[in-house]
Specification:
It is globular and about 50 Å long. It has one domain: TIM Barrel (Alpha-Beta Barrel), CATH 3.20.20.70. It has an 8-stranded parallel beta barrel, surrounded by 6 helices. It is 45% helix and 15% strand. The chain is α/β, with parallel strands linked by helices.
Length: 301
């Protein structure tokens, strides 16, 4: 038994020491930039689909969550360059939720970037299994481009995700929730805040071609600072719209030479009204038009 356990550990070490090719990869950095330029948009639509909040007409469907997501995607695909299912909303529904998630992933156009908003953060073989769940379609049926990861446990909790070729880690850095002050803003002896230490160290783990950061849109006073810390990385920016973040400020202070932004809107789009074909489309188009204006103003290749 002891030898068997040792062999299992050796196998995990081998797995974690080798790049893992995924033949069905979805989108790389240049493809993402091309999509942004073509659609004149850096909009990410968050699919935080709550069965209690979706319009009643979808609740009559065999799979209400998927039917609603399908309608939202149809309404917003011309304006969105990314979709971000919040995994908690699907996990809470048990096996049916995972089925809805898988069907949603299959429905999202293949030229649109996908984010598993899972905020995983564990070490070794556990992190590897999380990565396999969201990145390996042969294993789980899911094939996300990226996943949000919590960095609190350090390098060995992030590295297994980076082993999957052509996939991205989106690391929590400076979030917009009130509790972010509890840890992210605490300073070390040299007065460097924790979020800055996380961002600087993480850039030694991976290139800007495989590492993004979550930066809250409501932290306007920090946008220039975080762009100085990570000049070449993409930022996933929640907090615009319902949470009060300013799209213009985000664009002005955080855009880089490859745009470098995915700005997320969830509730403001998907729950804009009872008819996604009209209401979600209207709100997504409104954001896209504003983004197009800021691309003209602040995007310098």
């Amino acid at each position: 038994m002891a030898r068997k356990a040792f062999n299992l550990r050796q196998n995990y070490r081998y797995l974690l020491s080798k790049p893992i090719p995924i033949s069905q990869f979805r989108m790389n950095s240049q493809q993402l930039v091309n999509q942004i330029e073509r659609k004149r948009s850096f909009l990410c639509v968050g699919l935080d689909t709550d069965p209690r909040l979706i319009p009643s007409k979808f609740k009559q469907e065999a799979d209400p969550v998927f039917a609603f997501n399908q309608a939202v995607i149809d309404a917003t695909a011309d304006y969105a360059v990314a979709y971000k299912p919040n995994i908690a909303f699907y996990e809470a529904l048990g096996p049916k939720g995972w089925e809805s998630l898988q069907k949603t992933m299959e429905y999202i156009p293949s030229d649109v970037f996908t984010i598993a908003d899972a905020k995983r953060g564990d070490i070794g073989n556990t992190a590897y299994m999380y990565a396999q769940t969201f990145f390996d379609p042969a294993s789980s049926g899911l094939n996300f481009d990226s996943i949000t990861v919590a960095p609190y446990m350090g390098h060995d909790s992030v590295e297994p995700f980076l082993r999957f070729e052509d996939k991205w880690v989106i690391l929590l850095a400076l979030t917009s929730n009130p509790g972010s002050h509890d840890f992210q803003m605490t300073k070390s002896e040299d007065y460097t805040p924790l979020y800055e230490r996380v961002m600087r160290l993480a850039q030694t783990w991976a290139s800007p071609e495989e590492l993004m950061f979550v930066i809250g849109a409501t932290r306007v006073d920090f946008l220039q600072k975080v762009r100085e810390i990570a000049p070449d990385n993409f930022f996933l920016v929640p907090g615009v719209g319902a949470q009060g973040g300013s799209l213009e400020d985000v664009s002005r202070y955080a855009m880089n030479s490859r745009v470098g932004l995915l700005v997320n809107s969830s509730r403001g789009i998907i729950y804009a009204g009872d008819n996604p074909a009209v209401d979600a489309k209207r709100e997504a188009h409104k954001l896209q038009e504003e983004m197009s204006m800021y691309l003209d103003a602040y995007y310098i290749k």
